[in-house]
Every structure is written in C-alpha cells, then in structure tokens.
Amino acid sequence: MSSDQDHLKETDTEARFEFKKEENSAVRSGKGLTEEVIRMISEDKDEPEWMLERRLRALKQYHNMPMPTDWPGQPDLTELDIEEIVPYIRPDVDKREGVDDWTELPDEIKDTFDKLGIPEAEKNALSGVGAQYESEVVYQNMQEQWEEKGVVFMNMDRAVKEHPELVKEYFMTTCVPPSDNKFAALHGAVWSGGSFVYIPEDVTVEMPVQAYFRMNSEGMGQFEHTLIVAEEGSEVHYIEGCSAPKYGAHNLHSGCVEVFVGEDAHVQYSTVQNWSKNTFNLNTKRAICEENATMEWVSGSMGSKATMLYPCTILKGRGATDTHITIAFAGEGQNIDTGAKVYHNAPETSSTIESKSISKDGGRTNYRGLVHIADGAENSSTAVECDALMFDNESTSDTMPYMEIEESKVDVAHEATVGKIGDEDIFYLQSRGLDDDDAKKMIVAGFIEPITEELPIEYAVELNRLIELEMEGSLG
Amino acid sequence: MSTTQVHANLTDEQVRQISGDLDEPEWLLETRLEALEALEDLEMPDVIRTPGRDWTNLHELDYESLVDPLNAAENKDQVGPDDVDVLPWAEAVAEHEDLIKEHFGSIVDPQENYLTALSTALFSTGTVIYVPEGVDAEDVTIRTEQNSRSLFNYTLVVTEESSSVTILERQSTGEEQDEQYYSGIVEVIAGENSNVQYGSLQNLSEEAYNFSLKRGDAGTYATIDWIEVNLGTQLTKSGVSTELNGDSSETQIVGAFYGHNDQHFDIDAKVWHRAEHTTADLVTRGVTDDVARSVYEGVQDVGRDAWDTSSYQRENTLMLSDESEADASPKLIINNHDTEASHSATVGQIDQEDLFYMTSRGIDPRSARNMLVEGFFVPVMEEIAVDELREDLEELVGARLRQRE
After folding, report:
1. Residue A131 has what pLDDT?
2. Which residue of B has its CA nearest to A411?
3. Binning pLDDT at 50, 70 and 90, where does residue A139 land?
4. Does the CB of B337 have a partner CB in chain A at under 8 Å?
5. In a 10 Å sphere around its CB, with 0-12 CB exposed, 13-18 middle and 19+ buried, how is residue A34 labelled?
6. Domain SUF system FeS cluster assembly SufBD N-terminal: where (chain B) (predicted)?
7. Nearest residue of chain B to residue A413 (CA atoms)
8. What's the start-to-end Cα distance of chain A, in Å?
9. pTM here?
10. Lowest mean pLDDT segment, chosen from A178-192, A213-227, B244-258, B320-334
11. Which end of chain A lies in a sparser environment, N or C, as judged by fewer CB atoms within 10 Å?
C-alpha cells in the first residue's frame, strides 16, 4: 500500500477520495505505468531487491522521456496508447497458465503455421503455447552439451536468480541503459523473460544456440530481454525464432538485446521475426565489441503494423568488425522503419551494412542508418549498401542514411538503389514457362539470397516461405 | 526562443523605407511587412539532427548584431545580351510588375522559415532576368560585391517557351568588416521546353555568414541545371533544389565546395519528381581541410504520380586533414515504383597508392597532393558547361592549395 493511501486513511476526506483511490489502483483504469504495477511484476517473479530498484529507476526515466515523434518519415505512433498496455500486466501475472491450447489461437495465426508447414510440436513452441516449457527443453539440451565448458543458456528471469553477479554487471548498465530512449526505459521497467547466454573464455559453441522463446502469458512476452556475454576468444551463433504472432489486444513489443563481444570473440545474432499486423515493434538492440571482436547481425523483419528497429554496434576496441545483413518486408498497412547504427570508436575498425527491403500493396519500408566515425578511429572503413524492391505504386520506400565522419584516414561508402521488379526479368522467366507469380517469387528469392545464405537451412526456408506467403497475400 | 531576436530590433518603418526607396507597389510592401510580422513565429531552416547534435547550429548566430537593414552597400554589375531583360530590382519593378506579381514567392514561400522571411522583409537589391519566347541567351552575369555589414539579395528568372539562358552569378566581399551577413534567394521559373543554366560562385570573406536558397520550377520538357560552388564564408547554409513539375522535365545539380581553416558548409541538393518521365542527376564533390566541416544532405523525392522516373545522386568528400569533419546524408524518398533511382556517398582521404605512384615518378609530394586534389574535382568540372566558371573554380582551388603548407 502506498504512503499516499496511508495518508488518506488518516484524513476526514477519506470517503471522498476512496472512489479515486479505487480508480488509481485498478490497473485497467488507464492511469499508466505505476510503481505499484512494477512492484507487482517484480514480486511475482520473486526478484532480488536490486532488480526491483533498477525497474523503478527505469520507470522514472520512462516518465521523463519524450516519445519519438519528429523523425523525418518515421512511423505514426499515435495509435499506440502506452497507457493501455498496463492493464495487460496485472491479469498476466494473475493467470500464469495463459492461453495454453492450440485451438484458442486466432485463425490467422494457425493458418500461418499450417501454411508454413511447421510440425505440430514446433507449432506449439512458436505459438507460445507452453513455450516456457518448450524453451526450457531447449535450454536443458544446451546445458547438457555445454555446461561442462561453463556455457550458460537460460531464461533471463532465471538468470537473475542463478547468475546475479553477471546479470548485475551487464543488465542494462553500459550497453543499453534505460536512459537510452523511451522504449528502452519502458523495457527496463516492465521487462520479462528472454534469454541469457554466457560463453566463457576461449569456448567455441559450434552449433547455433537457438531460442524459440515465448512466454505463456500475454503481455509479458512482449518485453523480453536477451543478454549475451561472450568472453575473450569465444564464439557463438545465437538464433531467435521470433515468428510469434501476438494475440488481438496486444499492441506493443518492446524487446531489448544486449551483446558483449569480448576481445577476439565472435558473436552472430540472427533472428527472423514475424509479428502480427497490429503490433508496434519498438526495440533496442546493441552490441559492444572489444579489440578484434566480430559482431554479425542477421535479421529478417516481417509483420507488425509499425517497426522501429536499428540494431547498433559500438566498435570500442581496435580492429573490431561489424556486419549487418537485414531484410524488411512491408505489405498492406505496414510501416517497417529499420536500419543499422555503427559507432567506430577505435582505430582499424570496419563495418559493412547490407540492407534489403521489399514493399508491396501500400507497404512502407525505410532504411534509417547512422555511421559515426569518431576522431581518432583512423584506418577505419565502412560500406553501406541498401537495395529496395517495389512491387506496385501504392508502396513506398525511403533511404535515410546519416554519416558522421570526424576522422580523415577512413574509407566510407554508401550506396542505395531503388527499382521496380523488372518487366524484362519477368518476361524472360515467363518465356521459360513460369507464370507471373512464380516469376516474381523467383526474383524476390534471388533478391534476398544474401540474407538466406547466412541463416541455417530451417530459418532460410522459413524466411523464404514467409515472404512467399506475404507475396501471395495469404497471410492475415 | 531565439527566433525573435532580430524582429525586436526591426521596425515596419525600416521595411517601408526599403520598399519606398525601390518604388515598390503596395502589394509587395504588404508581402514584406507580413514576412516581418511572421518572424517571431517562424523557425530556423531545418538542419540535420542525429542523436545528441544539430549538424549546423544556426541558433548560435547573433542576427541582431549582423543585420543592418538601412545601411546596405554593394557594387553590382548585371549584364546580358540585348534580347534578354536583365534588370536591377527597381527597374524591374517599374517595367515588369505583372511578371513579378505572378512569380515572386511562388516557389520559395517568403514565410518558409525565419531566414527566408528575414530576406523577404529586408532585401534591397536584386535582379530580374526575363527571357522571351524562342530567345537563346548566353553570358548573363550578375556580380555582387558586398560592402556593408549585411546585404539581402533577390533574383528572379523567368524563361518563356523554347528559350534558353546561361546565367553566372558571383558573390564576393569588397569592404570587409569583422562579421558580415549575406542572404540570397533565387527563384527560377522555366517555361515549357526552355533551358536554364544557373551557375553560382560564392567567394565571400571568411568572416562572413551566408544563407542562400535557390529553387527552380521546371515546366514540361524544361531543363534546369544548377552549378553551386562554395568557397568563402565562415558559415554557409546553402540549398539548391528543383521541382520537376512538368512531364519530361530534367535537372542537374552540380556542387563543389572547398572548406579550410574553420569554415563550415551546410549544403543541400534536393529534387522533387512530380511529373512523368522526369530525370535528375545530382553530383557534388567537396574537400575539407584544417578544422573545416562539411554537412551534405541530398534528397531525391519521387512523388506518387511521378511515373517513369530516373534519379541519380552521388556525393564524394575528400578529407585533407585529421581535424576536419565531413558529414553526409543522401536520402531517397520513393512513392512511385516505376522508378530507377540510386544514390551513393563516399568520404575518404587522398589515396596513398596514387600519391606513392606520383612521387615515385619524380613529382614532389606537395605537388602530387595538389594534383590529386585538383583531379578529385575533375568529375564536377566536366559537368560545368560554363567555361568562365570552370576556369575560375580551377584557379581558386589551385590558389587555395598553394596557400596550404
């Protein structure tokens, strides 16, 4: 009980304020994110005091920060009512079981999985049904295989309790502090679930670490936190299958990914995301690379009503390398605003960004990038390449790169092209016996090949299938 | 906000006096007074912002101390062939009021931002160039030498059907003062099938501040080519743009700049494709040396109805010193899929292999470097069809290089 309420009890006007107090404490009242709600989440998770304190500090920062509203060409967020998210927290905490029956899923989602040809077991994992359980199984397997070497791979909530020293050091401290932006602050306050990956010095995890991570209660799963710590000389490929659609009422996904790439370490983070078309997908993903470290981002952004996501790498140590390979697809009513950010803060660092986008049926894609080369980051180089493919005249595609170059001994190149699907290409393929649709699919498959070849086969297949389905217009 | 700083210091009376001295009609005076009135509500021109910084901080300028509206002084030379009207502002107001009334402020809204409004309220010098139907005119030149603390200039170019004109404009400083402010607005209305080539060489004192905005409206089959060279001032905010409003219209924007000492150039090149079969080619090359800074923004905006668009942009910056900074943001905004568009931007230093190759052929390192910088400008030089402008640029770049240690 808050001190305000205690105070009210002592006053004559208690009866008059009682009504108001009820309104305040009812989480559905639209009063927004409150300390009470945060305490409720933390308590429900049985968290240590220090994590609660971090959440409360993030909440304060959240309230003090403005919404991003005046970026040129940014997605319209006016329909996003953050106050409306809160009500979903409380019931979630109450009914831990959540939706746990495949049949309770919306038809749109079930159809998607059927069309993807995903087997029942995997469907359950992807749909969030018993995902917590499914995730545990994945983690468990990993542990058996790697635990001898000291690799940790577990649910983030669990990591808070089992590896407090690591989490305390790395969780939203230096990589993505809650003060970074409004949604990072929001995330810091209400985060829930996610993955924790720790690779000790000189350990190479040869097979990709995969997480089909889903929370079983609505709302909570939208704020998952992924923390990857790769110590000196280690190597890991982490893959997140995020093709989890969200249920009707939910409208915000605000995840956070933090990656620490130690000296000479190598981390690849791959993700294929397909959010439902009513989701606002506003994420912060960032990596910090020490000397000679390598970070690779591979991502396919599908679905969502609006996405604002610019994975960022800070090249902090001499000789560090960063690679971004991204693909975005926007169909009817979708605005995918995505790109990449790289800060070259040390000499001899290099980065490459390869961004592809497809827009169709009025969809809107945007590449928004920032390459910053700090004074002193001599002999650094960056190459940015953006290609946009547009299917029709209802669609839009913008490219907005920003290059801030403070150092002269550098090599900076940016290139972007936009084009329609070539009539000649289609004609050629048709003359070889393909129908119009198949010809288009084939052209698109060729267009996105740089992405798919970086992904393990099952993800590449999934991405290809998702795009084919989007092109057929057969996804919700 | 700092936007009211000058307005407090300016009066209706001053504006009336400027307008009266030029014998302007009532409607023009009204336009000026409205611009003055609007100052307090208007913002500075947009500058690029990335997290934590404005790329050009116009708010730091003290316009109040820079603007001296009633003491403008200049040395002007405006000449052209006989069949073209090249008129000083007061004469143009007397002879071509209808033309001015039709076009003044039609492309650059006087109240577009704080600095356009300031310019509209206070301009005391200007030129109107009117090219009648079918006339081909070369060698129109406008030289403006600034001899006062502030100078506000306005240029209007109107070409009738199937005419063509080549205009060369220069701004320089005569009498230097501690700080000076030069502001120039250019509007070009290119009629059907006409061809306008507008070259500008800005070589003001390095104590000066400069705001310039040039914008053209290209009619059907019309071509507007801009050459924008910036060498002088301590701070320049320059915008060159074309609206391709007529089917099959074309534009080329060629830019060159060379910043040294602590110069700051904020340069943008923009094109709006608003009709069918339009073509744009934007090419800019710049050098930054010492602690100079360049900010480049290039925008290719393809509208919903701009079918069959071709749009190309490339920007390259060469950094000669470690303390200089070169920022760039080339943007593509595409709303029509029947488009072939590309842009590219690079930033780098002199290629060490080239330098090595030249020195190994017996050229001393300093000459080799100068030749490589001159060579860097060749792709834009080649696009400059006005011989005089190209030669001047070559000479000025050469002089600046020789001045270098």
Report:
1. 35
2. B348
3. very low
4. yes
5. middle
6. 72-138
7. B346
8. 44
9. 0.86
10. A213-227
11. N
